[in-house]
Amino acid sequence: MQSADLKNLTIAIVGAGYAGAAAAKALSLLGADVTVYEQATEIREVGAGIGLRPSSMQRFREWGTFDAIADVSSPSDYFEILTATGEPIMKEDWPGMDDYDVKTHTHLIHRGDFIDALVSVLPDGMIKLGHKLDTAEDRGDKTVLTFTNGTVVEADLVVGADGIKSVVRKQLFSDQEPVFSGEHAYRAVIPADATHGLATDDNLRMYIGKGTKVYFLPLRHRGDVSFDVTALCPDSTWSPEATRDDLLATLDGFDERIVQIARDIDMSTVNLRAVYDIDPVAHWHSASAVLVGDAAHSMLHHQGQGANSAILDAGALADALRDADTVAAALAAYQAARKPVTDELQRISRQGWTEDEVDDVFPGQKPTSQQPATH
Composition bias, kind Polar residues: at what positions (predicted)? Predict the structure, then answer.
């Protein structure tokens, strides 16, 4: 689109998480009039650590936000997968480090530090807190948003970045519900010196046992380690109660040092969630509304690609708006570029457990996430 057209474009982004904040940065650099509407009264991210891949870090470099991210993260060279008792299975360099003119590492970062860094590079006043979306109405070349506080917004482009339970997706594109994976994820941040020597550098390690995966993701810039345990469990309660006995049961047969971490951990610091994703959504856009991030393609965390996909969505959407003649054409180009990639990531992210492991916990059946996806 022509520069003058982009500057006249009003964009309303619903949600100020990774996808919404990244889209706000990328789209505002085009010169568009961007406002982000967030339902929470403060922006905060709970949980633990994630890895930002080289492709994401390259986008931050393009947007002039690389230093803000690098200042609160640690570069990592490789990841390692081991058995429950520590025997090596594989060790691989992070892919993509040499794909750019400047060598770009994967960066390990705390989720809270990441969202704080993203928000810090947005202009003051761009994010409007306390705006919970009630309705989204597609009027062709405009989309109208009504919020529960009475605010009504008409925009040339609405970007639904409102997560796995997206209101924009449900009202405009698909009413399918999130899908339970048959897993629970325990997440906590612990001091590096509480890992009994298991966190020795800046590289991710994953220990795999029967039905359980344990992730150690160092956060050297904090002096901490993200300690994540993903275990098969048939309880689909969205936010179950985290008990030490249940956590220890998932770690039966693991290295005694890992078990000791679970014995010592302050359970009040452990975030426990049932793990959900969504089936692929057939259409992400109309002429004036589009989905990004988890709203478009929420995926399980086995590939570590949820946040990275949101960043790449933001970049691809901005590229499409810059290059296409109209908003509608841009949204079609964006979906054509990103949907095949995320469809595949959703598919392979569901392959978290072997047939034997699933049968041990769900005899004679498979958890919903391992059924064939419906399109």
Answer: 366-375
